[in-house]
Amino acid sequence: MASADRKTSTERWGEQDEPSKDPAERAWEGRHDTELSGLLLPVDEDHRLGPDIGGYGNDVEISDAELVAAAKQSLRGLPQALRRNLEKQIDRSGLEGIAMRSYTENALGVAYEDSEAHAAIRVESLKDRAAAEREHRLVVKSLRAGEGKPAPKIKGHPQAYCHRVDLDMEYGHRQVLCSAPRGKYLVILAGEASTEDAVGRAVELFANQLDHLDAPGKYI
Q: Where is this region: Disordered (predicted)?
């Protein structure tokens, strides 16, 4: 995602240096000190860490007792019927860990709250590939059964699915929801966009996250 008057480009996502062993040295990218947090797309110079996700912060990894509650909290703001379906899936999913990070466009001269788009990405660790693919199918089924329509497809990622919901066109309130399985991981994006271009950039952000999972060293 980038400011509205610049062309969409993915090149900058791959132009950063090798990661430091000390996560505090490059804290603006987000944490990368564990295996799961390292799977999340680093924050680049066109972005900053975004709003808190369900009261857990904007860059967090959770396991053990808090896991299910955190996963459900991350669904806040979704349409009610979709949220109920996803909560039921979380209860059955066998989650082993979850890492979440939010992103806000870092447009020059634009206040944080006036950014055209915010997005939260979470990577869920499940017991195996079959569980991740099953949960992905359930997410897609829930999205298609609810409001909205499919968002643009992601080239090179045939299993990925993105969906958009136009909640309030007068005020430019659009939701973007994406899902894709990657091995034993399920990747979810939930974003808000105020323009059509911002919808496309949210989908692009998800594509970059999937590219990062396929080749982590390219984007870190």
A: 1-33
